[in-house]
Amino acid sequence: MGHECVSIKYNDSCITVGACFVKEGKKIERNINCTILIGSDGAGSTVRKLMGIEMRGERDLQNLVSIHFFSQNLGHYLLHDRPGMLFFIFNTDAIGVLVAHDLNQGEFVLQVPFYPPQQNIKDFSFEVCKELILKLVGQNLVDIDVVDIKPWVMHAEVAEEFVSGGNRIILAGDAAHRFPPAGGFGMNTGIQDAHNLAWKIACLVKGIAPPSILRTYEMERRPIAIFNTALSVQNFKAAMSVPSALGLDPTVANKGFSCIRHRIYNLCFYAGLTVHQIINSEVGSILPSGLQRALLNGIFTIGRAQLSEYILSERNPLGSSRLVKLQRIFDEGKSLQLQFPTEDLGFRYLQGALVPDSDKVPNALKETPTGLRRNFIPSAEPGSRLPHMTVKVLQKLSNKETFSTLDLVSGNKIEFLLIVAPKKQSYDLARAAFKVAKEFKVSLKVCVIWPHRVAEKMDGSRAALIPNTNYIDVEEVWRSSSSLSWWGICQVTDRGAILVRPDEHIAWRAKSEVLGDHVLEMEKVFSLVLAIKKTRV
Fold it and tell me: Alpha-carbon distance 497 to 294, whole Å?
């Protein structure tokens, strides 16, 4: 901490990071040598800029000011009267989004629109921000403590490259992609990046795989980031449907507005232009800055009048139609969505550190996001996350403790998991997999999944897998007569097999019995997954 990255140099054997820091009032520079550099330094990534990597997508979707403050009075009120996490506030005095980080401690972040250059961040002083908070929450709060005020710009962009510098300089998190904060995609996608990258770096550091394995990080993660970018934009636009229905079209407020017809503030300006565009145009720019600001504030005041009780009332034909439209948006689920189980858990890697079912790459990620929630359907296709099923350890009939198939994946070491059924052919494959894994210097655990109750009369897999000991026998936990078996969920016969990576994603599967030489098959699989060009002697 306290160091700033100012330069990056690299050759075939080393990366040198030039860093500067302040010591006893003096600026000191030092070089840090490393073999891998991960730029997880945020949306304004210095690593990305120094490597000359461009961002592609939609820029400047909206300017906002983030106001971080504490108020236990507000937290207590919301906790007992109106509990929630996100509050979209529209009234005649102000507009903003209140994010409740901790209602018990009274910690909040308020996001308000910002329109430079007519507005300056200096306009948002601590006192002005306190007044703004009071106008928005409508409560007499006496303990507001504003701790930070920062401007920021909303973008929807993805880096052209995630991996550069000979496969050893890597971007992760917001440095690689930045989304509108609509749906939690920024944090989820960033954590997924780290999850995908960690085991691959460990393989490289431990001499299991070559540097080329890090290239699979970009192959897998960048398509997901592009998809999530489009989805977050869709969700952001869905969120904006609510103020639009109230007569406050955010696209008009941000980029200006065209004439009349249910546009923000109902003012008629030049067709196709917006308030902000007009003021920033050559015509508007000749006006004194004070007049520009007064014009902008005046128009916004008129616009917020759309929210008055006189207009937004069932007795007012215009207001009544807006309220009906608003109710329809909520009823049809077309406003902001906060849960995306399919995108958070059901995303699938199509190529990379995996073996596809066929040589033809599917077009699963070419679909256009709709912004609407989709049901999560577990899949055992290569690149998908391992499906969940509740199981318990075989031969511990008195033990009622159950766990998930996902818990079978080791969380603290590089270990692959091979899942098979208690069949002779599957045991043969497992023994071959153990042999090959040892050759590749990687740990392998075998899980034998037994059907419910059938396993009670069996002795487990010890004799079939000897001398290998890194295995576990589990049985399915009965749910209902209509529930699918493990192999039914995976759409694989019980003569098939599933190989799982250390990040819980499926590296390879056999839908039915593996024919031919099992050792050759597993050598091929591990070579492809670990990016190793292995020549069999």
Answer: 70
